[in-house]
Amino acid sequence: MAQKYRFLDTTLRDGEQTPGVSLIPEDKLLIAQKLDALGVDVIEAGSAPISEGERKAIKMIARAGLKAEICSFVRAVKSDVDFALKCDVDSVHLVVPVSDLHIKQKLKKSRGEVARTSIEVAEYAKKHGLLVEFSAEDASRADFEFVKDMYASAKKVAKRICFCDTVGVLTPDKTKEIFSSLQKLDIPASFHGHDDFGLATANSVAALLSGASQVHVTINGIGERAGNASLEEVVMALETLHGIRTGISKKELYPLSRLVARLTKVHVAPNKAIVGDNAFSHESGIHVHGIAKNAMTYEPIPPEIVGRTRRFVFGKHTGRTSVELALKEMKLKASAEQTDEILRRVKALGDKGLKVTDADLQSIAEAVMQIPKTPKVKLMDFAVVSGKQITPTASVKLNINGNDVLEAGTGVGPVDAAIGAVKRAMEGVEDIELVEYHVDAITGGTNAVVEVIVKLAKGDKVITSKGVREDIILASVEAVVEGINRLI
Ligand code: MN
Fold it and tell me: Of these four, 7, 45, 150, 348, which has the most CB atoms within 10 Å of its CB?
């Protein structure tokens, strides 16, 4: 089936309203460019009235020559529309509270007053050349007849109407009833769903399948409280479960998810659908055994579709097949007895509650197979200076293939400076990228043992390694050096 559904991405507006998130204009522009390349139809770039910086960001996005329609959130207030006009946007997402709870408690107005002023403001926006998406806030808790009456009056001015499940209380069944009824109004209808009960994706899909032409989504499902419907989930559910082509370039879903997580500093839960760390990871012996025969046994879609790769994780649930696959990858030929011994040691580490990284597995294998370990890169020494008034600076001495290399680096903190210095020392020798850095305190207190786990990449090859020390900087540097040795 060809594309018939539209996506309004609100990562930069509702997503940015995630508690604690604030993006600088350059970051917002970068995300907008990626969203445009992904193929979303509308980018809600922000809320023009809120600040000078916000307007700067919206204006930069509006002027970036993107294919998508660029939109600003506004309230039904003329001055809000004026702010949007200053940002050169194509459209406004004009939000009108419609539940009595909002009208009486928040606005202290009557239904009549709200209906009248909102239409006036919509006309004002249209008169100034803006497309209007007329949005009913908290519509799912409002009198549906009143909401429909408002939509009917908005029809003359608005390009689209939008039904907001502001606090996420709809179910797919109710959503279906609502959109079947709204179809009779004969105006493009949009759905804005929240995930307070984990139903945002299901409700968004239900809305589209019963008459809505557009849904509001965010990358990683970020947004107010429990967040919004997630773009990647809605797209993949439509494509995979309903056989509908969305026009979204699915291979870019994972890279964009990582970018948004990094810039917003909102971590993605490991068990999050499609983009979570574990969405395509396998540890259990039974599952890995199945996957090795045919990946479809324990995966609904191949990870490559969304720009990811499959990952096998080692621990107490690991089976023989995982170890065999990993050894093959490392180009190590172990005998049956050696493989059993490697598996036994991996499980023993898992039983102690320890994370077994790729590097751990390789050192276990080398120990069991009695392969002499000659690291190409050795950490000879390092020093770090940090303080309140000075830029954190580190120097490291590495021995690379028998030659001593001394390098220095600065950073936002001592760990960043130290890792920066290691990366510099490796420059020109190997092109290695630090993909992820994660630190856990194993025990409590400031004298805790810390475990640093890093994910490093060289081309397509990605590996994890760790450093465990009481000194967080030493643990970090050792994790990186260990990882480098495993990659080269
Ligand atoms: Mn919202």
Answer: 45
Q: Tell me what the mean pLDDT of segment 163-171 comes to.
A: 98
CA of 99 to the centre of ligand 1 (A): 15
Ligand 1 centroid to Cα of residue 477, in Å, is 42
Q: Is the dihedral of CA 399, 401, 406, 408 positive or negative?
A: negative
Distance 229 CA to ligand 1 centre (A): 10
User: How much of the chain is in helix, strand and coil states, percent to nearest 5?
Assistant: 45, 20, 35
CATH of 377-487, one of 2.40.10.10, 3.30.160.270, 3.10.450.50, 2.40.128.20: 3.30.160.270
When pLDDT is averaged across residues 282-303 and rounded to a whole number, the result is 87
Residue type, 315: G
pLDDT tier, 1 (very low <50, low <70, confident <90, very high otherwise): very low
In angstroms, what is the span from residue 197 Cα to ligand 1's centroid?
Answer: 14
**Could you tell me the distance, in angstroms and rounded to a whole number, from the CA of residue 194 to the centre of ligand 1?**
7
Q: How does pLDDT run across 261-274, given as a tens digit for each residue?
A: 999 999 999 999 99
Q: How much distance in Å is there from the Cα of 71 to the middle of ligand 1?
A: 15
Cα 59 to ligand 1 centroid, rounded to whole Å: 22
Show me where the domains of the chain are located: 6-264, 281-368, 377-487
**C-alpha 192 to ligand 1 mean position (Å):** 7
Ligand 1 centre to CA of 149 (Å) is 22
pLDDT given at position 176: 98
Q: Which CATH architecture has domain 6-264?
A: Alpha-Beta Barrel (3.20)
Q: What are the DSSP calls for 53-118, one per residue?
A: HHHHHHHHHHTS--SSEEEEEEES-HHHHHHHHHTT-SEEEEEEE-SHIIIIIIS---HHHHHHHH
**pTM of the entire predicted model:** 0.83
Q: What is the DSSP letter of 280?
A: T
